[in-house]
Amino acid sequence: MPAVAPILAGDVQTGGPCDHWLPGHTAGPLPGRGDNSRMLTKFETKSNRVKGLSFHPKRPWILASLHSGVVQLWDYRMGTLIDRFDEHDGPVRGVHFHPSQPLFVSGGDDYKIKVWNYKQRRCLFTLLGHLDYIRTVQFHHEHPWIVSASDDQTIRIWNWQSRNCIAVLTGHNHYVMCAQFHPKEDLVASASLDQTVRVWDIGGLRKKTAQPGAGGDDARMSQGGGRMNTDLFGGGDAIVKYVLEGHDRGVNWASFHPSLPLIVSGADDRQVKLWRMNDTKAWEVDTLRGHVNNVSCVIFHPKQDLIVSNSEDKSLRVWDMSKRIGVQTFRREHDRFWILTAHPEVNLLAAGHDSGMIVFKLERERPAFATHGSQLYYIKERYIRVYDFSTQRDSALVAIRRNPSAAYNQGPRALAFNPAENAVLVQTDVEGGSYELYAVPKDAAGREVAPEAKRGFSAAAVFIARNRFALLDRSANQLIIKDLSNEVTKKVTSPLPTTDNIFYAGTGMLLCRSEEKVALFDVQQRSVVAELATPPIKYAVWSADMNRVALLSKHAIVVADKKLGGSCTIHETIRVKSAAWDDNGVLVYTTLNHIKYCLPNGDHGIIRTLEVPVYLTRVVGTTVFCLDREAKPRQIQIDPSEYMFKLALSHRKYDAVLAMIRNNQLCGQAIIAYLQEKGYPEVALHFVRDERIRFNLAIECGNIEVALQSAQELDDKDTWYRLGVEALRQGNHQIVEFSYQKTKNYERLSFLYLITGNLERLQKMLKIADMRGDVMGRFHNSLYLGDVAERLRILEEAGQTSLAYVTAATHGLAADAERLSEHLGELRPQLDTAQARLLVPPTPIMREDNWPLLTVSKGFFETLATKDSERAKGTSGAAAAAAAAAAMEEMDLGAVGAGWGEEDELGIGGAGEGGPQGGSDGGDAPAGGSADGGDGEGGWEMEDLEIPPEVAAEVASAAAAAGGEGAAFVAPSPGIPAVQRWQSKCNLAADQAAAGAFDTAMRLLTRQIGIVNFEPLKPYCLELYQGSQGVLPALPGLPALVAPLDRGWAGDVPRQDATAPALVYSLGQLEEQLKRAYRTVTEGKFSEALRLFNALLHVIPLLVVASRKEAEEVRELVTIARDYNIALRIELKRREVKDDPNRTAELAAYFTHCNLQRVHLALSLRSAMSTFFKLKQYNTCATFCRRLLELQPDEKMAAQARQVLAACEKNPSDAEQLAYDPRNPFDICSITFTPIYRGNKYVEDPYTKARFQPECEGQLSPVGDVAQVGLSASGLVSSPTQLR
Question: Membrane topology type, per the record (predicted)?
């Protein structure tokens, strides 16, 4: 068996700075350089100690196993916890995803290996066999095997399909800390605290698995007996190939290289060792020194020649594998590192530490590039290259030299091109920020020798003119203008207090960025043209005509015009990567996994998904040009139909919209929902063939014709009811009548006949009710008709003799009244008929076929929708009333919409489908025909009327002027109410309350600051709601007009969408209330002052401020109100217990430890001084005197304090032992009014952060009386900037 002889520490010397490393110094090009490296963190969690990590091979998921026994599944791209698995008893040290199945395996201190299905969200089975803690588990990349390492000094290989142990690898004589399969060969590497790394050959196991009937191995393993004993003592199918000896202490980790015959190991001797192996032997190559504590984990980078290690010295180090020196060091302040893993496909690593984990990259992968005209300039492998979009020709332009001072991840960050002088400006992060200026010769293509660059230091560098470029000096907050010879021509103070980046904004113009805003700065005039509040901006992308700019931050895009006006913001949950403008003024941008678009009005959507992130360089028609992370130019085909349709719609280019509709380029629920949201349901009608959706859209846009046709196809009760409601809203009572007939809604039908004055139909409804045996229907109809005799008959038949007598006597039916009086006898009620009046229905003013409708022309799409519907259905194309009649009887009532018609009812209730004779309900027919069976009517009397010729001519001309198609007025769609927009757009509790969504506001406040008692907040919420709407009194008898008041309203903008409600509370108002409360405290009105401070605490959650600075002021206001609330309640409590002098003294002392204004603190100290002096607590009283004198009060108070201090110093002792220690800092529990000394346990009010004794958990906090003590909460959000 080949073995490697131990190599003493120090035998192998590595070149470079590592020869002289000192403990704590970093391996790097210069001593200490790597210490300040900034990790490119992509995702971070806070949790219990993380002991195991595993990336999913395809999805953006990572498993983290915790010391608490929980396994967490995270989406590191979205930053969300997907699931948690909690079945292990004790810490879980190993976890691993299966490479292709929806499985993962975990091993823990409970000696159990569990295999889980994450789709089913459960443990499938448990593998038992290890006798001590399980350190690592791993799936084989090809076979159904799991390898596990344990503190029982063995490594086991399991078949997870048969659920048996198929091999036990013995030989280590201490805990086995790690075991891994080789990614390609039949090898297993293990690391143990016996100071060795062992490499095991499992080729025999593979051969037996490949043999026919190989399952017999698993069966034999489960039979016990001799075979198991053989494996326990070292025989079997896995043998030791190498034993690597060289570490002086226990080895914690060993890893194979993914492709080379190398192994790397890390141990408690603080060293990382590199080993090489061949078919016959293995030997140590080098030792990497630098860690100052145990090395926890070490791996090879899967894509680059790097080794990454982490350690209990709270550092993570990156080593160059070829030079074998350290190139980067990342440190944490308090957390030891335990585990490290690399993503198999993507350039990502993850590390677990004491308080969570981090997912990070070692270097930035975005290539530096710039576009000009039809050419793309970019940097790849130390060359500036040029790519022609039209010819797709890619060529190297000029070589650039690597800065010797550059650290590992400090490559080119940005590139700017000057076409006038053919110059290139390259920005890097070297030495805190530097630039290189290259003048590229015209014949430079293909040159191998790099031209001499002009260099300098700057946080950012951009061209601003033909022969000028601007630099940012962060330390002096200056803009430095240089010419192309690198000479300073001008220095300008930055327009922002802290400018941290600059971007090109046109000739002589710059965009200056700070953390909260950008400023458009005219360098020549030294003036700010415009400012715009934004999240921290990373890139600025200008349109070709420089009229629009897209400002890209990590999770948002702000689109504005060239003066930073008309801005809109798009928020993304996944990181924004790049953007480019197409020729139509649409912004196309990419996130990690999508190509998306943004229209000028702020509407946005998805174009297509991406397999890998790309960086857009140009958009031409259906082709997107981009660079991938290897800086390779690519072309991606996209379908712009969706955003071109929306763009045409927003520009009101209806001919283009119509062409897209007829070409069937678009379909789907997303387009329909968009059209509904934007107030174009009539356009959505063209995309829909489903009758249910067509009906809903037609109702929304008020198109009664299409709605009626769809209702006839659907023919269900709910559809007819909704059609009736919409027709009634428009005043088209013929369709209302038809709808009620279809649903057999007799009560509504009777009332409709009442309000339209159709007494004849009402009489027939009375007969129908009689035939149906509907007593209440008969009574209502007789009441509507004023038929007293019928009502009397109904009451008598129903046994209501008393009511029948009252009816007869009241209405003067003497004979009937006398008859009923005799029947009742003594039970006859006494009546006073002096005030009685006859109840009869009002005489109708008009008896038209429909109520008069305004004659207007229909819109472009409404007319088109009706025509399309007519073609599809084959109907005649008359107005809505005619369509209703056509469903019952073939009649032409097209002139009804113009306000003319016969006296008789035309075509409604005829003997057609659904009518009284044609229907299947017989005597239940609601109106018309011969429902009573014996009227003998000869149908409707349709007489020819002699109309004077001049009247006919006048009517004809009026009809022509009104337009043939648009005879009937169609009510416009109501649109989306402003309150509804507020509720959907706004994310702050105050905005939701002002919009009337009190339940949403309450949920937000409970989640953010733990409020559970909303009764004190109720009046303020109602004030917000009332204050967000203006009320204008209307005409007498009409309701008032309510207008929403929008916070973003501007008088000079003609049309504005609702953004956020106007609020009645402001920070200035609360500051005034705070001053008033201060004055009340000074006046000694403590109860009134407490009420004012509580009111502050009640209003603050319903406050919205504009900036983060103001949000900090709000938090400070909460702190002030909290401190005064506690202080005032202590003082009021002291006055309640005045009969207990010791308790009074303690409370007086606690009062002095509240954070109060200087004058109030002086008054509290004087009060405590007096109280303690009277109780002969001279020693403690002296401390109050000294504190009072330190505040430098007025002369009278100071003189008194000096006198008392002199008296106390003569006898520095206390008469009683009180629960007060002035030397030990403490907080005051304002429920128990006892001190909570530093170091003692406490619970907090999540809103004010007031502290309480642990036994108070779950109670309502008296500081504001709104929050629950001990409830977990995310924190108060009072500004939109806190949500970015």
Answer: Peripheral membrane protein
Partnered with residue 156 across adjacent β-strands are: 148, 168
Contacts of 468 (CB under 8 A, 6+ apart): 481, 482, 483, 484, 489
pLDDT higher than threshold 60 for residue 924: no
The C-alpha atoms of residue 331 and residue 317 are separated, in whole angstroms, by 9
**Is residue 262 pLDDT above 70, yes or no?**
yes
815-819, Cβ contacts within 8 angstroms, sequence gap of 24 or more: 816/792
pLDDT of residue 858: 53
Closest CA to 181 of 157, 162, 204: 157
CA 464 – CA 513 distance, rounded (Å): 16
What residues form DSSP beta bridges with 1267? 1011
By the 8 A CB rule, do 153 and 174 touch? yes
Which pLDDT belongs to residue 1262? 92
Q: What is the arithmetic mean of pLDDT over 1219-1240?
A: 86
Tracing tokens 């280019």 back to the chain, one arrives at 653
Count the alpha carbons within 13 Å of 773 in the hemisphere toward its beta carbon.
0
- Phi-psi sector, 215: left (phi>0), alpha (psi -120 to 50), beta: alpha
Is residue 824 very low, low, confident or very high in pLDDT (cuts 50, 70, 90)?
confident
Are 999 and 1266 a contacting pair, CB within 8 Å?
no
CB 495 within 8 A of CB 528: yes
Distance set, CA 535 to CA 29, 197, 518, 555, 638 (Å)? 35, 51, 9, 9, 30
pLDDT of residue 404: 59
The count of other CB atoms within 10 Å of the CB of residue 38 is 9
Q: What is the pTM of this model?
A: 0.55
**Among candidates 130, 81, 77, 84, which has minimal Cα distance to 107?**
130
For residues 615 and 689, the model is more confident at 615
The order of strands in the sheet holding 112-117 is 92-97, 103-108, 112-117, 122-128
CB-based burial label for 393 (10 Å; 0-12, 13-18, 19+): exposed
Rg of the chain (C-alpha set): 42
Q: What mean pLDDT value characterizes the chain? A: 80
User: In this structure, how many other beta carbons lie within 10 angstroms of the beta carbon of residue 880?
Assistant: 27
